[in-house]
Amino acid sequence: MESTVETDSYGRKKVVNPCMEPCAIEKGMRLIGGKWTGSIIYHLKDGPVRFNDLNRMLGGASKKMIDQRLKELESKGMVIRKVLSERPLAVTYELTEFGRSALEFLEQLRVWSEKQGL
Amino acid sequence: MESTVETDSYGRKKVVNPCMEPCAIEKGMRLIGGKWTGSIIYHLKDGPVRFNDLNRMLGGASKKMIDQRLKELESKGMVIRKVLSERPLAVTYELTEFGRSALEFLEQLRVWSEKQGL
DNA sequence: CGAGTAGGTTACCAAAAGTTAACTAATTGA
DNA sequence: TCAATTAGTTAACTTTTGGTAACCTACTCG
What we know:
Protein name (chains A, B): Helix-turn-helix transcriptional regulator
Largest interface: A-B, 50 and 50 residues
Strand order of the largest sheet of chain A: 3-5-4
Helix content of chain A: 40-55%
InterPro entries (chains A, B): HTH_HxlR, WH-like_DNA-bd_sf, WH_DNA-bd_sf
Keywords (chains A, B): DNA-binding, Transcription, Transcription regulation
Radius of gyration of chain A: 20 Å
Oligomer: homodimer
Largest sheet of chain A: 3 strands, antiparallel
Pfam family, one (chains A, B): HxlR
Domain HTH hxlR-type (chains A, B): 23-118
Shape of chain A: elongated
């Protein structure tokens, strides 16, 4: 993963390990870097949350977005959808172990972000 | 920043601190979550890199992308562009202190990402 | 001279992403 | 009966993105 540039005797440049396809950082970002994705994971940190509650917590995100993101996260195995009861329909979303493992990084991001006073 | 849902005596839900606009995580993500942005910062970690070298390191990213991202990062104060010499034109990009401060969690992201074997 | 380097810029286009608002069906509370 | 809740879905639309490839000036190497 360490790509470096070397200069040959004629002054020509060559890259030793170019990231031919997205490297780890890029892949990670594509997993949790989508709009609202990080926020959703973060808001699930304290346990299961219901769809509409999540919707209310993330003012600014539309239901469609939240729905879409939750489905992505579910398909990636970071979130589980649980039906508490049909009639009346009640559903919660919670983090899997994998999902939970992203919290560490997200927490650091949050701290950094707040420190910069963004 | 702690948004929670409360239920009143009638069973109605209210959110106490909704993230009305993007919260810290969201803002952070928008700063470094763009395609290739994290990778660019990460590849500048060992010091100044020239434009075309960066281009070679990030196989898969086009010049246009790199150019665009570098300008964004410059405008956000995370990267500085330095002209080493005109005639022949030589330019390097390096991280500012602010840019460097992002390396800490990018490194964590990298480790996490690799651990998942993505 | 012709090719290659450096550091970009430009136009064009296709595809993806995101927003809004309306609508669903079933249930409950006033 | 009216309103609101639940968890979504859908269509229509706009915006943003990202990729390609050509072009630019200036310089050096053989």
